[in-house]
Amino acid sequence: MASCSPMADAAGGFGPDHLPYGVFKRAGEQPRVGARVGDGVLDLAVLAREGLLDEDPALFAQPTLNPFMAAGRAAWARVREGLRRIVRGPDAEATAVPLDEARLLLPFAVADYVDFYSSVEHASNVGRLFRPDADPLPPNWRHLPIGYHGRAGTVVVSGTPIRRPSGQRRGPGEDAPSYGPSARLDVELELAFVVGTPTTLGEPVSVSEAMEHVFGALLLNDWSARDLQAWEYRPLGPFLGKSFATSVAGWVTPLDAILERRVPAPAQDPEPLPYLREEPWALDLALETVLNGSVVTRTNARHLYWSPAQQLAHMTVNGASLRTGDLFASGTISGPERGERGSLLELSWNGAEPLELDDGSTRTFLEDGDEVVLRGSAGDAVTLGEVRGRVEPAR
Is the pTM of this model over 0.85? Predict the structure, then answer.
C-alpha cells in the first residue's frame, strides 16, 4: 500500500468548477456561510452586502447553511454563477479569508439522518461473513434500497474526536452478554447527500424529481461498533452500535459540480417496481480511506447499485416528508477487489486477515489513537471535503 495519496498531494480541486459551501468562524466573529476557493474562503455575507451577489446578505450571515439550502434551486444557481464570476476576476484572492484563519463548523443543522445499504459488494461481503451457508443478500435487497434511521444529534464535523463507545456485547461462545468498550470499532466509507427544499407530509417524491430537492453531496464516515451491533441488531437493526457518532465533511459540494460525473450503471435485476424505475446511473467519484497515513481502500461511488434518486424516492414513497437539512447516505461503498472494500470488517475479513500498514503495524479494527481520513475526487476539478477523525479511549 502506498503511504501517500495522489488526492492528498493535489493542490487543486477547489477552483471555479467546485466552490463547495461551508460554515466558518474567525476568532471573535460570528459564524457565517462561506465558499472555498483554493486555500481561502469567500465570505458570502460580505459579498452580498457589497452587491457582488444578488441575494439578501441575511441569507449568509447564519450559523448553518439551512436558510440558503431552503431558498431553492434558482437561488443556488444564481449564487453559484455569481461566485464563479467573482473567482475568475482579478480581486478574488484579496477577498478570500485565509483557510488557516477559518474554523469550520458543522455545515448544516441535520434534520433527519438515514443511512442506506446500497453497495452490492459490501452487502454481499457482510452476508458471506455472517451467513456463510445462505444467500449473501437478503431476499429484499435487489427490490428496494434498505436503510435505517440514525441519530441526527450525533452527526459531527470532520476533525471532531471520536470517543470509543461502550455497550453490551456477546462474543463467540459466550453464554451471556457483558458491558464494556467496543473491541471492534470500524469505519464506513460513504457518500452522502443533503436535502435543500422540503416537501409536504403525505406527498411522495418521484424518482424523476428526487434530485431537484438535493442541495449537495459530501463524504461521510458511519463509525460502527461491530460487536455492539452484532448483539443488538436483531430484530430491529442498528442502534447503539451506530448512533454514537457519524462524521461528515465541513464542505458540501454543490450537486451541479458533480452531475457531469454521472455514468451509466449495470441493469438492475430484477427490474425495480415502477416508483423506483429509472435508467440505472451512478457517480464516477474516486474514494479512499487512509488509516494512520496508509491508504487502505481505493474505490469508487460508481459501484453503488441504488442511485441517490432511488434512495430518496423510496424514503418518501410512504408519504414521509423531506425537511431542509435531511441527510441520507449511501452505506459503505465497496468494489469487487479486496483493496476496494470500504470497511475494516471487510478488509480484515472480520479480524481473520489483519491489515499491514506502512509502518509495519497491523490492524483488524481500530485502536485508540488511530486516525482515519476519508477523501474523494471528481477528476482534477473537484476535491471533495475530507472527513477526519481520531479515536479516543472510552470513558
Answer: yes
